[in-house]
Structure formats: C-alpha cells, structure tokens
Hints:
The protein is of the alpha+beta class and 157 residues long.
Amino acid sequence: xxxxxxxxxxxxxxxxxxxxxxxxxxxxxxxxxxxxxxxxxxxxxxxxxxxxxxxxxxxxxxxxxxxxxxxxxxxxxxxxxxxxxxxxxxxxxxxxxxxxxxxxxxxxxxxxxxxxxxxxxxxxxxxxxxxxxxxxxxxxxxxxxxxxxxxxxxxxx
Length: 157
C-alpha cells in the first residue's frame, strides 16, 4: 500500500472539524484538526494528533496548554484558514475560556492542560486533561469532513 491509498482510505471516515489553539502570551496560534477524540470521563481526557513538523507541535510543547473549538457548519472558511488553504477577508474572532483563545460561535470549546505527549510515527498525540468546557446553545449543525470535502449532517433532533 502506498501513501495515496492510505490517505484515500482514511478519507472514507467522516469526521467533525476542530481548530486547536494556544497562546504564548503574545500571539495566538491555531491549526485545523480532525484527529481529535475523547479518551476518558474520569478523569476527563481528550487527545489531539499533531504533525511533528507543524508549528503547533512546538507551541503546545512550550505552553503545555491547548483549546479545542468544535466548528459549526458555517465555519469551513475558518477551518481552511487554519489549514493554510485559504486567506480570510476578515480577521478571526476569538473568545477566551480559561485564558485560552477559542473560535467565536463554534459549537463547543474545551480547554486542556497537557497531561502527556506520545510520539506516534510522524505525529505526536497530545493527551490533555480537560480544564474547562463551554457549549454554544445556538442550534447549529457541526462542520464535517469526508473525502477531502466539507459538509454537514442532514438533520438532527
């Protein structure tokens, strides 16, 4: 199997879309990620996967904190901006949760302190202990990603 075939197979798994953020006290740093999941309820733990060559890799190692913003169906341009695929014609609006920047109007925000980091091939898995959660009460659908394209779910109750 080659890299292209592997990527193609992984693209068959529909995911939600998040933006991972942190701040070094001067600047806000962010990246788009769909490699995010909950790990444990007690204690509350989540994990993100970051390429070892990405700027975010060093920023999380430095700050020992990160936030996850779960994007809504109208935020594909924000995802593309943080994936370095598109320049926005406006600035990204942030809110603050526990001193960390989060994407305004996202479905939910989660802040984390870095618990552990695990090297896994060309990525590192950052296990975060959840320090804060905020849920946006506006009824919006999640932004999804499938076969290299953005979408959303058709309906939910």
